[in-house]
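RECORD TYPE: inverse folding
INPUT: structure tokens
STRUCTURE:
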């Protein structure tokens, strides 16, 4: 069984995610002496990058609700001698004072939120006036699976609604920031294009739920799997979802 850490490490190696993260660091312009926060830090990869950018006079903090992730991230930071630190916390109740941070980033968290407006207001609270936030998220309505029967794939897509409360998170990021009192500074996007192994791992929960709920039959899954294997063998396949990133500045 693939662990959450393995999945996060696999995702971190996807070229599209790497490109979008590099773009995000460039436009966020986190620099020496800044205080920076990463919400939903996972294994801590991006907080280590932020720690390098803020230097010894700054502060880079990662927050995650999963205590196991916090422990892993702190261990990885210690192993590299990084000054990054990680704490357990709730997206809706960030354990920091008002106006504490110069920059906040939040990647692939909004797709899991039932109340994204509450989270955005909390981000605004912990940012100083003029501070910037970078939101990055997937838009699962853009998911592409090829080859395969279009009807079967369309029914599989309906399962995403049961796994993600904010399925269209990516396209809604700009509006979330605007409504919370941010000015939009930049917008970017990348396709998260997966190789067959990564796609199999990432889409496994969708297949399991679809079969359990009777959305597709075992025969339909067997036929789809056969088509996918044939396509992979001849090099005719595609698995992707589009990710969007929005940089906003907190207005006074």
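DESIGNED SEQUENCE:
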């Amino acid at each position: 069984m693939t662990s959450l850490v393995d999945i996060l490490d696999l995702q971190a190696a996807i070229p599209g995610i790497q490109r979008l993260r590099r773009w995000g660091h460039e436009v966020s312009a986190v620099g020496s002496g800044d205080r920076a926060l990463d919400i939903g830090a996972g294994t801590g990869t991006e907080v280590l990058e932020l720690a390098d950018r803020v230097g010894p006079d700054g502060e880079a903090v990662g927050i995650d609700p999963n205590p196991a992730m916090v422990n892993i991230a702190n261990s990885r930071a210690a192993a590299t001698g990084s000054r990054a630190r990680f704490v357990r916390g709730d997206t809706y109740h960030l354990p920091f004072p008002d106006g504490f941070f110069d920059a906040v980033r939040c990647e692939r968290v909004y797709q899991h939120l039932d109340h994204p407006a509450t989270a955005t207001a909390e981000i605004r609270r912990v940012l100083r006036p003029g501070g910037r936030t970078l939101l990055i998220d997937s838009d699962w309505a853009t998911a592409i699976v090829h080859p395969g029967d279009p009807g079967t794939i369309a029914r599989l897509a309906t399962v995403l609604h049961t796994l993600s409360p904010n399925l269209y998170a990516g396209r809604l990021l700009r509006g979330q920031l605007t409504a919370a009192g941010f000015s939009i500074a930049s917008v970017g996007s990348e396709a998260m294009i997966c190789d067959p192994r990564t796609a199999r791992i990432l889409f496994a929960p969708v297949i399991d739920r679809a079969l359990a709920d009777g959305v597709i039959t075992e025969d339909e899954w067997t036929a789809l799997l056969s088509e996918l294997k044939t396509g992979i063998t001849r090099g005719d396949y595609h698995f992707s979802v589009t990710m969007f990133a929005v940089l906003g500045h907190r207005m006074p």
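NOTES: The CA atoms of residues 40 and 64 lie 5 Å apart.
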